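Incident review: delayed structure delivery

Summary: a single-chain prediction request sat in the queue longer than the usual turnaround. Root cause was a stuck worker, restarted by the on-call engineer. No data loss occurred. The affected request and its eventual output are reproduced below so the record is complete for anyone auditing the incident later.

Affected input:
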Amino acid sequence: MASVVQWIQGTRPRTLPNSIAPVVVGAAAAHHIDEFNALYTGLALIVSVAFQIGVNYANDYSDGIRGTDDDRVGPFRLTGSGAAEPSKVRLAAFISLGVGAVAGLVLVALSGFWWLLALGAVCVLGAWFYTGGKRPYGYAGLGEIAVFLFFGPAAVLGTLYVQTGEITGIGIGSSIAMGAISAAVLVANNLRDIPTDAVSGKRTLAVVLGDKDTRRLYLALVAVPFLIALGMVVRVPYALLGFLAAPILLPAVRRVAAGRGGRDLIPVLQFTGIAMLAWAVLVSVGLVLD
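Output delivered after worker restart:
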């Protein structure tokens, strides 16, 4: 029977900045036009984090029963390690997605933007079929595109729109930044797993591109938020605060650029996630100050 600590590990805490950072910067974009709503932001955060945990448990379950996690280099997995029964991991995924769905329903009801229910449904389906079902899109090299869309435009612009009823240029730029660096986290994860994924038949984008081009893709993606911050300076001079996140990212960039592999790439996910959250907070501070 899995321990409480192992269930917490199963949520993949290192990936949670992916769900927190977009809501932070989306709320700041709403504040920038004097439309910030703390309750709506809190509900959006619950939706985002619950969906993130749900997709992590779903991924644990689906990869585990397929045998993809039988020979892992990366962090602990509940199903693959045999610590938890697959049915219980699947239930944890459904509960997490359910919590997110309920919070989303409350948010939609309060805001009156009922069409957002369709977006929520797409997010739930995207979470499950990433590695679930007969034809998981995560096994077909589409995972990074989905992460970009869900943790970029969907999360950032969804948080902004539900509070303001509009989409701003700052919001669009921020959503691209968040989507790119969120995708970079997955690229780093899949870069580490190229050898085992190739053997198990999991054709991630990293497997398709190969080691060298995957590293180039990671470096390009992590540069995007800083280019966006530079572009924001025209409207929001304090957006330059986002560059203070660069030193946090540097150790990850060095490991990827130096050709490190296996367990040496595990910290890359952590550094990238923390840098993402730092960029979001710093740019959000800039938006508030402006």
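Verification: Residues 21 and 277 are 5 Å apart (CA to CA).
Action items: add queue-age alerting; document worker restart procedure.
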